[in-house]
Amino acid sequence: MECLNLVNIYSDPYFYDLEYDIRKDDVLFYIEQCQMLKTSKPLTILELGCGTGRISIPLAVCGFSVTGVDVDKNMLKLAEQKAHGLDIEFIEANFIDLDLSKKFDVVLMPYNAFQHIHSDEGVSKFFDNLKKHMHQGSKFIMELMNPLDDDLSRGPDDFMPFDAFYVKKCTDGSLKRTNKNDPESKILVIEDTVVFDPITKIANYNLYYSLDGEDLFTKRIDLRMYREEELREVLISNDFNILNVYGDFNKNPLKDGSQSIVLFAELKY
Fold first, then answer.
1. Model confidence over 13-32: pLDDT tens digits?
2. How many helices (H) and strands (E) does the chain have?
3. CA distance to 187, 214, 237, 239, per residue, from 233 (Å)
4. Which DSSP symbol is given to 139?
5. 181: which residues sit within 8 A by CB, 6+ positions away?
6. Any idea where the domains of the chain sit in the sequence?
7. CA–CA separation, 50 vs 110, rounded Å?
8. Which pLDDT does position 4 carry in this prediction?
9. Domain spanning 13-146+226-267: CATH 3.40.50.150
10. 94: exposed, middle or buried (C-beta count within 10 Å: 0-12, 13-18, 19+)?
11. Strand positions, DSSP E, 29-133
């Protein structure tokens, strides 16, 4: 398979929604956790890496005061269009250098956002700034990809299925999800390869997209991988108490084969 039109995975916010808007288990989890933390005053939530508002918007619908931060202005533009006047403030910023001059009850960092910080220096700077936006007892919830040895050892020529679903073209040329019984449906297939550097701990993923067997483009995402033990050490050394670690959003224990690490922590002081 050729590496055609290599682009960043976040380059098209509408296509990003096509892929990930269907992902709901994490949204329900974050809503549940925030509802359990409700106090007499409105709960304030900061989402880092909010993208097109997939999580921020449902939280605001539930009555929370939400601030969403993302570095991509096009993602934020679509998020604002979708928010329809809800109580959400969207801010274009790099979360490593964040300076909002206010504190939040809960900080969320969903769907591998933390793994975009590749250096130890960047991680230290991130936590220094993060703690300025939290008070004692503020909660921090994050999801990361659990590093699986079978996955990271594959190499650049070992293609694996990542996702597949049916779509059809709209009149404006965009795609929307449909089902195989739709006469206009075509199957969109995503496969990936990975090259992992055990020194830097960065995994370089290429995702190859095809529509009914015709190559469309290739997207790239680079993620720093963390084992549970290292992640715990990072949080503890940055003044957090770890409250829970799960292997998925159903609160199952983290195991070797778990796809995700879902970590719930609290700032000590």
1. 999 999 998 999 999 999 99
2. 7, 13
3. 43, 45, 6, 10
4. E
5. none
6. 6-10+149-224, 13-146+226-267
7. 8
8. 58
9. yes
10. middle
11. 44-48, 65-70, 88-92, 104-109
